[in-house]
Amino acid sequence: MSISSTILRLSVCMLIGLQVLALISCESKRLKKECNTFEEMQDPTNDTLSDWSNVPAGLQASFISIDDKLPKSVAPQVSLNKSVTVTGWKGEKVSAQLLLWSVSNIDQVELEFTDFQAQGGKLPASVAQARFVRYVMTDEFGPGCGYRKPEDFPSSLAADMLDNLECFNVEAKSVRPVWLTFAIPSDAVAGDYKSTLKLYAGGSKVEDFEITLNVVDQVLPEPSEWLYHLDLWQHPSAVARVHNLEVWSDAHFEKMKPLMKMLADAGQKVITATLNMDPWNNQCYDAYADMIIWTKHEDQSWTFDYTIFDKWVEYMMDLGIDKMINCYSLLTWNNKLHYNDMEKRELVTVELKAQSKEYVEMWSVFLKDFTSHLREKGWLEITNIAMDERAPADMQAALKVLESAAPELGVSLADNHKSYRDYPWIKDICVGAGNEVTKEEIAARRAKGLITTYYVCCSDPFPNMFTFSAPAESVYAAWYAVAADFDGFLRWAYNSWVENPLTDSRFRTWPAGDTYMVYPDARSSIRFERLVEGIQDAEKIRVLRKKYIEENSPESLAKLNQLEEAIEYFNTLDPSADWQEKLNDAKKLLN
Known about the structure:
Elements lengths: L2 H26 L31 E5 L18 E8 L2 E10 L3 E8 L2 E3 L2 E3 L4 E11 L17 E8 L4 E3 L3 E10 L7 E11 L2 E16 L9 E4 L3 H7 L7 H15 L5 E5 L18 E4 L5 E4 L1 H12 L5 E5 L7 E6 L4 E6 L5 H21 L5 E6 L3 H14 L4 E6 L12 E5 L6 H9 L3 E6 L16 H11 L4 E4 L34 H26 L2 H15 L10 H12 L1
Parallel strand pairs: 2-12, 13-24, 14-17, 15-18, 17-20, 20-21, 21-22, 22-23, 23-24
Antiparallel strand pairs: 1-3, 3-10, 4-9, 4-11, 5-6, 7-8, 7-10, 11-12, 15-16, 18-19
């Protein structure tokens, strides 16, 4: 071999070596980033004295159960688990949880998924999402409803908010969960898909973790096709205040879009609208802004400006929430309404009892005009006049006005007076948790196209979605709905944010987290993710019931009986101590 050819071969080898080295370098190094974000509140508990002396140096990590919610300042006692298997149907979103902790400050923590590989093909890495879990201040259930001062209840930090950050700085002697979400495509081929989750810190690779995504050969319908009747009340004004935007401005509507799209993707069926001034007497941190402007002219005639109402309804329908419009309220919590009085040249507020002549006159004029407007828009058949926890005597009076002035309008009622049987014809009845409605009653209403759901609020210790609640309670809520044969579930507050919702979930009147399920800038929460998980379970049950009944074979009927036996356990609001284990066992049946 000549000297020149030897030199050429050495040069080629060196070049290949440099390329491999460059690949390795790119693999293990990332660009330096500033991981800026807001500060969480200081941990107020004595657990900040936890002993971290046995924690090894560097960033520690392990998969843990999605049922676990660990304190921020306590050195975790967990078995190190570097792999996880997550199972779901085609079209389903499933979750896992990775726990990070460190005895020292760790900057620029990042995570990256590789593609999911299987024998039958692959799924792109983009089906997976990693979100850092943030801690918010919470309290405890205590007496439930009623005014409360923060200093009167033990406070602690609870892991809840899922932040949309590319990277995060982990504080010394602290825990940081990471919520992993896998959106399985509807057209995925069934099988086991393998991916690697790469953990970086300070721009350098720390560790690899193995993820197996087991895709079951069943298809979950799209959220728009789910039958589970989800009704989480929206609060547009809270968005305007938190983001310092003019209410109902174009910027306000644009800011709400990802937040309300997240709700649509959860299978939401109902648009929350208002008829006059705040129907709940400003019980939230933010009053509800008017959607319909009432004007009384000098000749005593009335006009009603539906501009904002129409814009809001069309906006929500464009996002996919279009099954029902519930308008609050013919019975406000303080019996007040207001209007522009052109004779007096001022905004006039009046207090009217439902039994009064003035109440009948004013509401009758509006309801007739509103009916005509809804008919023109094509919304009359899906619109309800909605009442929330109003006394039976007031309900009877209001319903008489509706029957006389607007008989074509539907009615929705959230009932905590056990009076729903007085109105068997109401289109949308929601009873307080624990108010028994027989399966026969629900079936009879369903046969007429009427909706029957249940709700939880500040008075219900279980199952609930407070920031201190066990995460699996959000899932249990849907299994209870299925077991009791309800059509779905209502909760009064999707985004009625407190003063500082990103850091402090406590409120002046109810247990922490009662007023909102999600956070500003369309940040989800563990509670909301688990709520959707439960709804997916309810839809999977519906699919399997239909499948087994149609197959009608001894094997399929045996599976159906096994499923029904598992479901029946959840027909209670006071389950046994091992309810989480029972829930996970029941979920395995669906897969």
